[in-house]
Design a protein that fits this description.
Blueprint (H helix, E strand, L loop, with lengths): L1 H13 L3 H16 L3 E8 L4 E8 L10 E3 L3 H9 L3 E3 L21 E9 L2 E10 L7 H24 L16 E4 L1 E4 L2 E8 L17 H26 L5 H13 L5 H10 L4 H17 L4 H24 L10 E5 L4 H6 L5 E6 L7 H9 L3 E3 L13 E5 L4 E4 L3 H21 L17 E5 L2 H9 L5 E5 L1 H5 L7 H15 L4 E4 L26 H6 L1 H14 L6 E5 L5 H20 L9 E5 L2 H4 L2 H5 L4 E4 L1 H9 L17 H16 L3 E4 L7 H10 L3 E5 L3 H9 L3 H12 L4 H14 L13
Parallel strand pairs: 9-10, 10-11, 11-12, 15-16, 15-22, 16-17, 17-18, 18-19, 19-20, 20-21, 21-22
Antiparallel strand pairs: 1-2, 1-6, 2-3, 4-5, 5-6, 7-14, 8-12, 9-13, 13-14
Helix pairs in contact: 1-2, 1-4, 1-8, 2-4, 5-6, 5-7, 5-9, 7-8, 8-9, 13-15, 15-17, 17-18, 23-24, 23-25
Length: about 750
Amino acid sequence: MLEILRKIVQEVSAAPDLDSVLDLIVRRIQRAMRTQMCSVYLFNTKKQRYILMATQGLNKDAVGTVSLSASEGIVGLVGQRAEPINLEDAAKHPAFIYLPGTGEERFHSFLGVPIIHQRDVLGVLVVQQKERRRFDENEEAFLVTVSAQLAGVIAHAEATGSIQDVSGSRRGAVIESRFEGVSAAPGVAIGPAVVMAPPADLNAVPDKPATDIEAEIALFVRALESVRHDIRVVGRTLSKRLRTEEQALFDVYLRMLDDNALAGEVVDKIRLGNWAQGALREVIKAHIREFDAMDDPYLRERATDIRDLGRRVLAYMQEAAPKQINYPDNTILVADELTPAMLGEVPTEKLAGLVSVHGSGNSHAAILARSLGIPTVMGVLDLPYTQIEARVLILDGYSGRVYVNPSDEIQQVYRDIMREDSEVAAGLEQLRDKAAETSDGYNMPLWANTGLDIDVKRALERGAEGIGLYRTEIPFMIRDFFPSEQEQLQTYRSQLAAFAPRPVTMRTLDIGGDKALPYFPIKEENPFLGWRGIRVTLDHPEIFLVQVRAMLRANEGLGNLRIMLPMVTSVHEVDEANRMIDRAVNELREEGHITERPPVGVMVEVPAAVYQVRRFARRVDFISVGSNDLTQYLLAVDRNNPRVAGLYAPYHPSVLRALEYIAEEAHKENVQVSICGEMASDPCGAILLMAMGYDVLSMNSTNIPRVKSAIRGITHVRACGLLSQVRGMDDAEEIHLLLRNTLQELGLGQLSRPTLPR
């Protein structure tokens, strides 16, 4: 069954449209399961009906015409329950409804499984047989697996308009679709998609209409001839070192590129309207899938040859193609994996938002997007990005959603949110030089999180009173090798000098997990539980000492440096790091530098650290909570995984209790406690953290005005009362709702995350 499933998946991937996919599915399943009938019903949301879209075994004339309401028949029951139904004799089931004209009266046994995508039932996959019997567990598992594969294909087809509307309208009638990702930078953007592909990556080439068919063909022919020339040159170069039969391999390559083979198929695709790169991708991928599906190992390996040829031709086409891209107003840049270089190619005034199929909120591009204030969604794994060029998107950077082909109604909802965001931002500018002080006189210092020079400028513009987290790994991530002590000194000096005499908290190198250096790769099965943070730098004292020396030298004459240690789990790590910092201080003094030992603190990011806060506090000068990592470790949820991002709940009672406990324990040792995670940047979260007793809140500078406004609009007494209420609550969403409602009562509802469509 596994081999059959593999072939079905490959064939489905190669099918040109949804109709072909559905027809292929029913034929292959009928053959694989040796049933007399297999059918697919898709759910039409407008009509609220399941419509027969493909069948092998029923009357073909019934396709597209026969339908059931959402509550009718066993098919409707499968959809309602969202689980398989396996019957020995369907006609005896109370929900059975006979569908005239289908010919189903011949069948008795019934197995139906729902086709589900992101919790929505898209349709039902059914098999039946004439004999009365229950399908066994293996058959049921096989059908469930196929339906899971089919769900993604249907969702893609709806988003790109390749689905045949089940009401009978023409192909290309697009349907509004929603895709879930991870919020990387807040805000909303509405605009056309511009898909950017990395060089010579066939999988990333988008479909685009050919504006000049003959020019596209000419471009392809020139690239083809260049590849033929390369192959001939290589063949001649190696001719003396190869046997005759090995030299023949180059002739095979050349024959593949013949006009009657791959080349002819590409030209045909171009004449049908796809641009040259898209046509090449279609043909090459189709041939790769054909070879991959073959039983013979030798023939399967030919897929590698086809892939290599495709990349070579694509590289020449991309090199010869005009580099100038016409970016429309409000461009939403879409890529398989966004890079900072891609952002730099789009004119700033044209760029409205960013979408990345892969990548996390800690990628270089995401960090840069937050610094620039560009709404961004990462990890939209199901998005059919190669097929949405020029389609209108809504990018919801608050919830991590992307809408393709949004309706006028939902566009208006989001335009209202954008207008409200602009009005709020304009109204908050006047708070820059005012303190974050409650109406009953409680002062709450607000610091900024930084990583790039532009972050410092924005933090100062928004009235930050210090830097609670400077991510020193970012200068490491944007280089091809470890920066020298002198290079680090210059980088750190600019941060310290810009904020002097206000404090600047520099976190020592925090790599691992989802933050990798290209020149220092860390390959692990589970990187978030692996070699990261302080574990790496203590194992490499040469890296740690150089960085600390650079920080200390940069601090000379300024005196506003604070050093923070990430991912600490034991007092042994703190003691060892302290010894190395002392060593660096002594070395520099011996070299003639006037160096003072700065305050040193630790980050509480893992559950083990929560219960050692007092022990840490006796060894350091301050405690800082990294609430993002702490939340994901407490809840066992990877916040960068869109499949489980909905389970990442900063207001989960266990998270709130841990945060309150940390503040209490730190204060028992009279040590300052701060927090530098995303929770501090939410006005609702900031009010709770203030009530818990946190001494400093550090956040992305964009959020400082909102948080300041919330603190100035509430009394400390009211905030403490809210915390008391929250302590008795059990549900994260209910807690968040209480906090949002409180802001509404205080006339501050515009500061909380907007209420968004579900």
